[in-house]
Amino acid sequence: MAERRENLEQVAVYDRFRIFYSLSGEDALPPARRADDDNDGIPEYVDQLGRRFLQTDRFYRDEVGLTSPLDGERYKGHAHYIDVNLLNIPRNGIAYDGTPKLDRSISHQKSVPVLLIDLSNSLNWGNKTPEHELFHIYQNGYTYFKNRWYTEGTARWSENIQSGRVGKGGFLPASRGQREALFEKTYDASQFWNELILRADNGTHGKTFIRHLLETLREMDEVAARERGIKRANWPEAEQRSEKNNPYIWRAIQKTLKDMGYSSTEDGEIKTLFGL
Predict the structure, then answer these.
(1) pLDDT of the residue at 234
(2) Confidence of residue 243 (pLDDT cuts 50, 70, 90)
């Protein structure tokens, strides 16, 4: 896959985002995506995608209050761009947490360490994958935890928030068994996160909660690393996804709610969370 990324001969730069694409070969943009309406040498689809990433990035920074991953503790000085590769892939997209240095000479760009997002070059415009995958990059900038009930569950929140909406809620665990079942979920864990937000932080549609949560997870993975003898700057992938992280993520949820003043809430189901 690295070779395919390096063979993308076209690039459009939008601040610290670089969008790489091709007009020929295996990863060529579909013909319908090549129209250059303003004759600036960049397909309109790519231009719109670049503006969309900029808008989403500004929203996460200015409206949610998050620190850009390029400016945060983990990646500052270690990654210089967020590179988006438009590829002919079977999935909508995927974000990575490494900082590879790809050979970008074919597109006349600097070959420097970067953060990576791969997107399908046939992605439907209404699909929220760009927002979702960029949020994963933000998550990675804050914490090494990559348990999917947390990463995918909260990333689903990111798909709706720019429209001022929170997705469909569902349940809050009322027992240890229900909590353990939550830890086994992936995308459908979003119903837990949405329900929690609707009850505890509906005034900002979860923006305050998510910011506090990510900041607390950053503190909590330091605790996890220390207690488990992991070098925090070099977490093995298996440890990042380990079920051993779940109690720390749960403690981060409890601490976030407490710090936001919800430990004295009259909502009995949220009170129950503090005892699990």
Answers:
(1) 83
(2) very high
Q: In Å, how far are 1, 22, 197 from 85, measured between CA atoms?
A: 11, 9, 33
The rounded radius of gyration (Å) of the Cα atoms in the chain is 20
Buried b / exposed e over 34-67, threshold 16 CB at 10 Å, is: eeeeeeeebbebbbebbebbeebbebbeeebebb
Q: What is residue 63's three-state secondary structure?
A: helix
Per-chain mean pLDDT for the chain: 95
The strand ranges marked E within 88-222 are 93-95, 115-120
Whether 37 has a pLDDT exceeding 90, the answer reads no
Indicate the helix (H) or strand (E) that contains 86: strand 82-87
Q: In what order do the strands lie in the sheet with 93-95?
A: 10-14, 17-21, 82-87, 115-120, 93-95
Q: Which of 151, 12, 3, 19 lies closest to 82, judged by CA?
A: 19
Map residue 91 onto helix, strand or coil. coil
C-beta of residue 40 within 8 angstroms of C-beta of residue 186: no
* pLDDT reported for residue 170: 87
